[in-house]
Write a structure and sequence with these properties.
alpha+beta; six-stranded antiparallel sheet
C-alpha cells in the first residue's frame, strides 16, 4: 500500500506490524494496543549487583508510527509503556524528543496534539 502509515509494536520478544491507509486509522490501532498494554500487571524492580531498575525506568513495550513515505518517512513518533503502567510519547528517530503531557492528557492525545492529527 503506497503512502501508508506503519505501526510497529514491540512487546518483549513479540513484534506486531500493521499498515494503515490514514494517520487516523493508525492512531486508533495505536490507542487499542496501548490500552491493552497499560492494563498489564506492574513489573517488579530489577536488582543487579551494581544497580537497580525501578519499574518506571523499564520500557516494557514500544509502539512506533512512521510514514507515509517508505524510505525516509516524514513522521517518526511513538509511545513507550513503562513497567509501572505509565506511557510516554516521543518524536524523532535517532534523537528522541519526549513530549510533555498537559494536565489530564494521555500519551496518545499528547502525540496527536504535537503531530496535528485529527
Amino acid at each position: 500500500m503506497a503512502g501508508s502509515y506503519r505501526l510497529l509494536v514491540r512487546e518483549g520478544p513479540r513484534v506486531t506490524r500493521a499498515r494503515h491507509g490514514s494517520l487516523e486509522a493508525a492512531f486508533e490501532d495505536l490507542a487499542a494496543h496501548l490500552s491493552r498494554l497499560s492494563e498489564q500487571s506492574p513489573r517488579k524492580p530489577i536488582e543487579l549487583p551494581t544497580r537497580s531498575f525501578e519499574p518506571i525506568a523499564q520500557v516494557v513495550a514500544r509502539a512506533e508510527l512512521s510514514g507515509p513515505q517508505r524510505l525516509l518517512p516524514r513522521l517518526r513518533a511513538g509511545i513507550d509503556v513503562r513497567g509501572d503502567g505509565s506511557a510516554e510519547a516521543w518524536t524523532g528517530r535517532a534523537s528522541r524528543q519526549v513530549i510533555e503531557q498537559e494536565d489530564g492528557e494521555s500519551a496518545v492525545a499528547a502525540l496527536r496534539r504535537v503531530l496535528g492529527a485529527p
